[in-house]
Structure formats: C-alpha cells, structure tokens
Design brief:
Number of helices: 16
Bound molecules: (R)-mevalonate
CATH superfamily of the largest domain: 3-hydroxy-3-methylglutaryl-coenzyme A Reductase, Chain A, domain 2
Largest sheet: 4 strands, antiparallel
Strand content: 15-25%
Radius of gyration: 27 Å
Strand order of the largest sheet: 3-8-10-9
CATH architecture of the largest domain: Alpha-Beta Complex
Number of domains: 4
CATH class of the largest domain: Alpha Beta
Structural class: alpha+beta
Length: 434
Amino acid sequence: MVSGFSKKTKAEKMIWISQQFHNPKEALQVLNTYNHSDKTLQTLHDEFIENALTNFYMPLGIAPNFNINGTTLTIPMAIEESSVVAAASNAAKFWSAKGGFKAQTLGTEKVGHVHFMYHGDPIKLQRFFEKQKDVLLASTEAITQNMRSRGGGITALTLVDKRDAISGYYQLDVRFETLDAMGANFINSCLEQLAKTLRELAGQYAEFSEIEKDIEIVMSILSNYVPNCLVKASVSCPVDELLATPEDSRLFAEKFVQAIRIADAEPYRAVTHNKGIMNGIDAVVIASGNDFRAVAAGVHAFAAMSGQYRSLSKAEIKDDVFHFSLTIPLAVGTVGGLTKLHPLVRWCHELMGTPNAKELMHIIAVAGLAQNFAAVKSLVTTGIQQGHMKMHLLNILNQMGATENEKQTVVEHFKYNTVSHHAVVEVLEKLRAS
Ligand code: MEV
C-alpha cells in the first residue's frame, strides 16, 4: 500500500513505481522515453488525467480519397491494429469510383435522467410534476442560457413511472439539443440542478404527506444510449459494376448479402461483424478527441435493441442495384472537451475540414461502413488472412529487430509465399546465417 501517492510530484511517482520492477533503472527509462521533450506539451498531457506518468502512444494514420456527399476527404484514424487503415483506404477508393458515400443525420437528440424514489400516491406525484414543471425548467436557465442563445437547450422534460421495474422508482426524463458539443458536462449540470430543485419543491409541496415530501434522489446522469441521435451512411451501385465482370459481381453481391444476413441472425458472428465496424468508428472517434467508450456502449446497446444482438449494417439487392448501409447512434462533439485542447486532435479536425458535429457524425459513420465493406469483401472472397498477414509481416520483422535491408528481402520473399509467424522467423534466420 502507498499513502499520499497523488500528492507526490510526477518525478517521485515515476521513481516509486519503477522501484516495483525487477530492473528499476530500465523501468524508469521506459517511462522517460515516452515523455515528450516539449515541456509545455507534456504538461498539457499530464493535466488531462490524474497520476499521469508518461504518454501511451497510438499510431495516427490517414485514409485518403473518401467521397462523402460529393466532397473528397482524408480521414484521420488513431488505431494500433494493422490492416484497418489500409482497408478503409481501399474501400474509399473502391466507392469513390462508384459515386461515393452518402451520409445523413437522422436525429441529434441527447438524453439524461434524474433517477429517484417516491413512495406515495402516483397521481399526486403526476399533479405535482405538472404544476412544477415550469419551475423545474426555470431553475436550469442560468446553465442553459448560452446553449439556448445558439438554438439548443432542454427540448423535453417528462416524468416517467418506472415502478414496473423497481418499487418506488421514477425518473425525470430530459431531452437535450447540444448542437456542436457532445454535451456531457452541460447535460449533467442541468440534471443535477433539476434533481436539487425537484427535492426542494417536493419538500415544500403542501399536498404531499411527510413521506411523499421526502423524494430520494438516487442519481442524475446523462445516458450514453442515444437512439435518437442517429446517423446513416450508405453506398449503392448497379450489381454488375461491383467487380471486374458481371458474373463475378453477381456472385460477390449475393455472398455479401448472405454474410450480412448471417451477422443479423447469429450473435456470434454479429459481435465480430460489428467489431469490424467499430475498427473504423473508434479510430475516428479517438482521432477527433471524442469519448470512444461512450460511443461503443451506445452503439452496442443499439445493436441489441430488438432483444437480440444483431448486425449494425444492412445489405440488399433490389432491382439489380446493390445497397449497403449503416445506421448508428453517435453522440460526438466538435467543440469542448479535447477538441481544442489537444494539438493533434485540432490537427485532425482541420484535416477533416473543421466539421460541425453533424458532419463529424457523417465522417465517423462512413469510416464504419467502409471498414465493414472491406472486411466482408475480404471474408467472402480471399479471406482476411492473406492481406492481414502481409501487414502483420512488418510487425513480426520489427519485433525481431530486422534491419531495413532484411525487411526488404523478407517482404519480397513473402510476395510469393504464405505469411506465418514461423515462416517469417525461418526466412529471417536463414538470411542472417547466409
Ligand atoms: C478484425 O479486426 C475485424 C474483422 O474480424 C471484422 C469481421 O470479421 O467482419 C475482420
């Protein structure tokens, strides 16, 4: 046990933790290596979280040639997995020759709740709520003023009886429009104010008995499940134009649609299928400085909305046209949070043409659809290992400390041979021995 750890300076923390390692000097060296030499930048990073010791780097790649609603765009992707950026780039190029991606925002509503317990007459509670609704809303005016002046704010406030789920459980269900902000802080501030006012008003409400006056606020928090903050990305083209020949194209389109049906019907496949979609989504969500945990939680809940976990994407062939689309809930922001604070995040926003929140939703959904298209295309044709292992080859070579010359020779060899970890080790060892 260590006491007062958070009070130690960063240097003291680094030394203390390094001493827990077999080789403290080496452990400290690793931490130092990843600390940035630019002191101002490092301090900025250190202040994002508590007990920061160093930086955990993630590669930032770019996928060019995305045509989204007629505009050509390069998408930044922060991801550690090989093949993902290459797959996105290939899908971008493939679809830019076929009219590009279409994207539309289907809704922007955010949601939050005051969860509370009330053990009394439900009709009295409803009457109380209707009488006090304006007062409740008015109590948030100082918080919502800025947002309202820009056209956002609280869009709905309702009382929800949840006693079917838990005895005495009710909610204030609050809907929000947060414009270009993800809005978590704004929403939570509004909810905490509503909770406070609710309790105060109930305490003074003459028609309530003493027990009824004692509303118990359990918690006030936004929901990361945002099924009305939706974006749809899609592509389509005549079936016969999908691949080089109409025969290949038709076979491909049919297998592709089958693959999507399987992902819709079979949760084991749906999870991996949607993981491929998240490869694209998370990479852009991270690069844009947004909260990928919130996005992932909401997206997966949406995938299970029917009561079964299903594919997030849909594909069909209709009148000889291949249609492929992805609809997902996405609560992301282009102002606030890390978006202006983190220099590389700012750079990524500029790369994407400084999008507003709706445009960023379009870009993220398109990245997810592109990723899914590339994965399923590989799966129903060559299989994913062929491309994947070639990309993985460099990782293996790097792990083995291969020189640039060795890399070139080994990569050349595997243009004509199947990549496996064992085969790469063997070829490199032979090369070194010769
Ligand atoms: C790997 O990161 C993602 C895939 O497994 C997705 C899929 O199976 O659709 C290739």
